[in-house]
């Protein structure tokens, strides 16, 4: 009896795994209604830094950004967890990427339609560098970053808020992108 019960559980687990595998779709199978959502959280809620996707329009240009959203969690962020003067993936885990359906101007500089990873070089008491790189699908963020694949680098002056924002967020706003984390507000002009 015990052997039958154990075999039954093994069979049940295997059937469940096959069902889950067969139901998982290709990430390119996105319906039109899903695209219209402004923010999505990946079903992997147990991630320490949840995967987020935001979409919006700047003028009539549609932009989508995907990033890992780390929390402060009592840590010193700028100059410690995220060192000054070094390339940062502008999020957590895999590289943050941006998808542009049309050509845009970023801080007045042209950037063609396409997908790009987005990196940042934070600096203490100086403007920051925001980088758009042609290698957008990097599993390990800045560890795979190669400067020779940079398509555009712009400088942006950070702003500082008086209160903390626990979780990193990147929003598509009418003026472009707005990166917020801890006391940082990094506005990136896009038109």
How would you describe this protein?
- By secondary structure, the protein is mainly beta.
- The protein has one domain.
- The protein contains 2 helices and 11 strands.
- It has a 7-stranded antiparallel sheet with strand order 1-2-3-4-7-8-9, with no helix packed on it.
- Strand 5 and strand 6 (109-111) form a beta hairpin.
- The longest helix has 22 residues, at 2-23.
- The chain starts with a helix and ends with a strand.
- Residues 24-37 have low confidence and may be disordered.
Draw up the topology in text.
Blueprint: H1 2-23, H2 32-35, E1 39-41, E2 51-58, E3 61-68, E4 97-100, E5 104-106, E6 109-111, E7 114-121, E8 128-133, E9 150-156, E10 159-173, E11 176-189
Antiparallel strand pairs: 1-2, 2-3, 3-4, 4-7, 5-6, 7-8, 8-9, 10-11
Q: Which short descriptors sum up this protein?
A:
seven-stranded antiparallel sheet; mainly beta; single chain; DUF2911 domain-containing protein; 191 residues; 41% strand
End-to-end separation: 70 Å
* Residue share in β-strands: 35-45%
Q: Biggest sheet, open or closed, and with what strands and sense?
A: 7 strands, antiparallel
How many strand segments? 11
Q: What Rg is obtained from the alpha carbons, in whole angstroms?
A: 20 Å
Derived structural class? mainly beta
Summarize this structure briefly.
This protein has two helices and eleven strands; from the N terminus they run ααβββββββββββ.
């Amino acid at each position: 009896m015990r052997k039958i019960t154990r075999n039954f559980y093994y069979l049940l687990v295997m059937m469940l795994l096959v069902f889950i595998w067969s139901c998982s779709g290709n990430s390119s199978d996105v319906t039109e209604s899903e695209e219209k959502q402004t923010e999505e959280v990946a079903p992997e809620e147990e991630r320490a830094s949840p995967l987020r996707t935001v979409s919006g329009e700047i003028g009539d240009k549609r932009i989508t950004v995907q990033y890992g959203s780390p929390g402060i969690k009592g840590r010193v962020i700028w100059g410690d967890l995220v060192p000054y003067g070094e390339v940062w993936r502008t999020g957590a885990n895999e590289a943050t990427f941006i998808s542009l359906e049309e050509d845009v101007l970023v801080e007045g500089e042209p950037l063609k339609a396409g997908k790009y990873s987005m990196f940042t070089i934070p600096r203490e008491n100086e403007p920051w560098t925001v980088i758009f790189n042609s290698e957008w699908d990097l599993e390990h963020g800045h560890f795979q970053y190669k400067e020779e694949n940079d398509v555009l680098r712009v400088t942006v002056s950070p702003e500082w808020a008086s209160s903390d924002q626990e979780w990193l967020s990147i929003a598509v706003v009418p003026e472009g992108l707005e990166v917020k984390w801890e006391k940082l507000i990094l506005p990136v002009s896009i038109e």
